[in-house]
Design brief:
This protein has helices at residues 12-23, 37-45, 56-60, 75-82, 100-110, 154-166, 176-202, 207-213, 216-222, 229-238, 240-262, 266-282; strands at 2-8, 27-33, 51-52, 65-68, 91-94, 117-118, 120-122, 143-146, 170-173. The chain starts with a strand and ends in a 10-residue tail after the last helix. The strands form two sheets. Strands 3-2-1-4-5-6 form a six-stranded parallel sheet, with helices on both faces. Helix content is 51%, strand content 13%. Helix 2 links the parallel strand 2 (27-33) and strand 3 (51-52). The structure holds NADP nicotinamide-adenine-dinucleotide phosphate. NADP nicotinamide-adenine-dinucleotide phosphate binds next to helix 1 and helix 10. Residues 8-14, 34-36, 39, 69-72, 74, 78, 95-97, 122, 125-126, 129-130, 228, 231, 235, 292 line the site of NADP nicotinamide-adenine-dinucleotide phosphate.
């Protein structure tokens, strides 16, 4: 049981975490701060937070648990702003979709308190951002990846794992590098492709008419293109090296399929489709049902 959660970023992810902790009776009080006072007020009206703080530092003062749930590019300024309110006993976590960059931001921002930070990425989410979409059940049955480093306090890693488990998540631990290369492949590149795909259609003179004719396959294929622009801009830039590597691999696969079509090589094309189709049919999702 925690006495006070200091929540920085009262949006979808942060708000859902606060609601989940409240529902499980794991926290007595939540004090929140967001960039716009209107967001923080809204979170209070919705009962997501109990009190609104006028600054990130005031939101964490007196907190034994801190969650940073802001776009990843805002991480370093946030860590620096809260540093003087953090002690060795405070458990600090984030929910960012990229890990190496956030860890470096925490190292610079938290300085002597860096050992209190347990990096976390819940593999859960929605295309809709904002506190109005926060949901106490968002993390139930989903995977949460923790990416601690050598200097992360062991006790904090254990408390973080226990806390996420208590709200129904399944906890995995991996290195930040392994996390970023895996999620470039299964989350970040698919979002980049979905954005490119929508842009490619929209840029055609008949694009709007094509879209009016699209059916369920198109809906499923492009669902993630409705993601939040700020969040995805930050994620793609933060993990660009790994995403660009994955883009090269995708390009090679697309080139190979195009070459088979140009050559009219029906058996090679069928074999390639059969291999992909078989792999997709056998694939079973971990516990997460959305790409985080
Ligand atoms: P969101 O609903 O837009 O919430 C972000 C919140 O952060 C907003 O309340 C925003 O406040 C606040 N904020 C932005 N800049 C800030 C700053 N400099 N200082 C304090 N607060 C700031 O976004 P989200 O979906 O919760 O995403 C939050 C994090 O979760 C991101 O790092 C993202 O990578 C990660 N994540 C998201 C998903 C997903 O599916 N959405 C999945 C996994 C991980 P204002 O309203 O005032 O702008």
């Amino acid at each position: 049981m925690f006495e006070q959660l200091g929540l920085i970023g009262c949006g979808l992810m942060g708000g859902s975490f606060a609601l989940a902790l409240k529902r499980a009776k794991l926290v007595e009080r939540v004090v929140g701060y967001s960039k716009s006072p209107s967001t923080t007020e809204h979170a209070q009206q919705l009962g997501v937070i109990d009190a609104a703080a006028p600054s990130a530092l005031l939101a964490v003062s007196g907190a034994d648990l801190v969650l940073i749930a802001v776009p990843v590019a805002a991480s370093e300024a946030t860590f620096a702003a809260i540093r003087s309110g953090i002690s060795a006993e405070t458990l600090v976590m984030d929910v960012g979709s990229t890990k190496s960059d956030v860890i470096e931001a925490a190292r610079r921002g938290l300085q002597a308190q860096f050992g209190s930070f347990v990096p976390a990425h819940p593999i859960a989410g929605k295309e809709r951002s904002g506190v109005e979409h926060a949901d106490a059940a968002l993390y139930a049955g989903r995977q949460v990846v923790l990416t601690p480093v050598e200097t992360t306090r062991l006790g904090h890693i254990q408390r973080a794992a226990t806390l996420w488990s208590a709200i129904g998540a399944q906890v995995l631990t991996m290195t930040p590098q392994a996390h970023d290369s895996a999620f470039a492949a299964v989350s970040h590149l698919p979002h980049l492709l979905a954005f490119a795909f929508m842009s490619g259609i929209a840029s055609q003179p008949d694009g709007q008419r094509f879209l009016e004719l699209a059916g369920p396959g198109f809906r499923d294929f492009t669902r993630i293109a409705a993601g939040d622009p700020t969040m995805w801009r930050d994620v793609l830039l933060a993990n660009r090296e790994q995403v660009l590597l994955q883009a090269q691999s995708f390009r090679r696969a697309l080139d190979a399929l195009e070459a088979m079509m140009q050559a009219g090589d029906s058996s090679a094309l069928e074999d390639a489709i059969a291999a992909a189709s078989g792999m997709r049919s056998q694939w079973k999702m971990g516990s997460g049902s959305t790409l985080g």
